[in-house]
Amino acid sequence: MKKTLASDWLAGCSGCHMSLLDLDERLLALVEHVDLTATPITDLKRPAEAGVDIGLLEGAVNNSSTETVARRMRRCCKTLVAFGDCAVFGGIVTLRNRVPAADALRRAYIETETTVDGRIPRDEELAVIQPARPVGDVVAVDVCLPGCPPASDAIEHVLAELIAGRTPSLKGTLLDWH
Q1: Of the spans 34-38, 143-147, 171-175, which averages the highest pLDDT?
Q2: CATH number for the 3-97+129-166 domain, one of 3.30.420.40, 3.40.640.10, 3.40.50.700, 3.30.450.40?
Q3: What is the DSSP track for 62-93?
Q4: Which of 68, 108, 111, 117 has a CA positioned 20 to 30 A from the CA of residue 4?
């Protein structure tokens, strides 16, 4: 029986999803064993739904919107993989923490050319900015796959183990797989 797989990304560069595509033909071999239910890299852009076997979550949590996505992925996925350095450690996204939110909003909406008439939007739909955090600071994570981005061999190893119903061993250095 095929496992279901979903992926999503939070704040970050999306390089981990691009590294996933680096699996190339090896990805096709994995796809024979999974049904891809949701991902931002295909037309399956809908959010993950309950009952997903494996979830890959890339990026750091840095606002209320990304926190909502992380919580939804945790609820929907039996096994959640924090995918890449941003998801595992907070990564490069945490550098933004050095700039207070009010200063970042002033720079983005008042000091630069915008379409909001030189004011900071008060729209309720705008995500509330938070300090960037690793996914594991917000929800329980089952497997951490570090790397910026993780090596395609490491991604393949983790996915193959999870598809086979095993907990992947990450002993040794994943950096050697680049």
Answers
A1: 143-147
A2: 3.40.50.700
A3: EEHHHHHHHHHHHHHEEEEEEESHHHHH-GGG
A4: 68
Give yes or no for a contact between 149 and 175, defined as CB atoms under 8 angstroms apart: no
pLDDT digits (tens, 9 = 90+) for 110-158: 777 766 666 776 655 566 667 788 999 999 999 999 888 888 888 889 9
pLDDT value of residue 102? 74
Long-range contacts of 153-161 (CB under 8 A, 24+ apart): 153/177, 155/19, 155/20, 155/23, 155/83, 156/23, 156/26, 156/30, 158/81, 159/5, 159/30, 159/34, 159/54, 160/30
Spatial distance between the Cα atoms of 146 and 130, rounded to a whole number of angstroms:
22
- Give the up-direction half-sphere exposure of residue 162: CA atoms within 13 A in the CB hemisphere: 28
